[in-house]
Backbone:
């Protein structure tokens, strides 16, 4: 009989590796795409007649406009702005306003001030910094992949072979079609489409696996625990199918009671420590 308190006490604070923080390869790739245009715009830095200089640049090199959104840390080809003069939806791939209106945009967003007052010295360096900041927003996705990669490493260690005895990201209808198993109890009689992070197929059993890691708390954890508790109960009614939930992270401390409810009814809820102890080796 497992103890919930002992189990959750082994949860980890983090599983971050060195690549989790910033994907510099992606950052430099994004900057390189507009490096020529940024260097053209560099001529505006310290300009004494920035509006006329800007008009000359976009007249001769209209492709430089595509750089403007990233200067504001925006990943979009269009930017909406309004004031007492009206509403404008500026397109930066194909001019849809007058050149003078783009000057107004540059002035009112503060970009002209940034350039003409030597606040920066290189737009390439500046955009590299912006891209680095924007990439930090991708940590949530990378965090999810970290847990998936970690779980997959233990699946492989247990001897399962990708696309033969284990599969990634399989939907219920794909599982049903491949092994002719009725999973309607989980899919609300076919009305909803559930996707499992991993699917392990042994001689006598199909294991649907969900993985997640929560370093911090939040209301989502309670919702996740309740959702997986329901899946666990539904899976019990399906012969030849078993639900496995691999989760970890100190964030669960704030939702431990909901997690304990699932722990009490789901024997196949595991932590990273359980994986290290070889639970996947026991799947039959």
Residues:
């Amino acid at each position: 009989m497992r103890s919930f308190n002992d189990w959750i006490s082994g949860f980890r604070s983090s599983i971050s590796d060195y690549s989790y923080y910033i994907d510099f390869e992606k950052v430099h790739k994004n900057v390189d795409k507009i490096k020529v245009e940024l260097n053209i715009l560099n001529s505006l830095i310290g300009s004494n007649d920035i509006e006329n200089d800007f008009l000359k640049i976009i007249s001769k090199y209209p492709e430089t406009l595509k750089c403007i959104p990233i200067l504001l840390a925006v990943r979009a080809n269009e930017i909406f702005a309004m004031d007492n003069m009206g509403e404008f939806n500026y397109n930066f791939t194909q001019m849809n306003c007058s050149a003078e209106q783009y000057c107004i945009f540059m002035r009112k967003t503060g970009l002209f001030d940034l350039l003409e007052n030597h606040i920066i010295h290189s737009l390439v360096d500046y955009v590299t910094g912006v891209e680095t900041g924007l990439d930090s927003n991708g940590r949530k996705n990378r965090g999810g992949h970290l847990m998936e990669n970690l779980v997959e490493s233990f699946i492989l260690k247990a001897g399962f072979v990708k696309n033969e005895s284990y599969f990634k990201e399989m939907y219920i209808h794909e599982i049903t079609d491949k092994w002719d198993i009725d999973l309607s109890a989980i899919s609300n009689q076919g009305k909803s489409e559930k996707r499992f992070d991993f699917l392990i197929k042994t001689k006598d059993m199909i294991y649907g696996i969900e993985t997640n890691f929560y370093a911090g708390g939040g209301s989502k954890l309670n919702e996740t625990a309740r959702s997986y508790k329901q899946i666990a109960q539904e899976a019990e009614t399906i012969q030849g199918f078993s639900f496995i939930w691999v989760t970890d992270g100190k964030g669960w401390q704030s939702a431990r009671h909901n997690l304990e409810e699932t722990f009490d009814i789901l024997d196949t809820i595991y932590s990273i420590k359980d994986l290290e102890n070889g639970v996947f080796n026991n799947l039959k």
User: Anything to note?
Assistant: The radius of gyration is 26 Å. Residues 24-137 form one domain. Strands lie at 78-83, 86-91, 166-171, 195-201, 206-213, 241-248, 269-270.
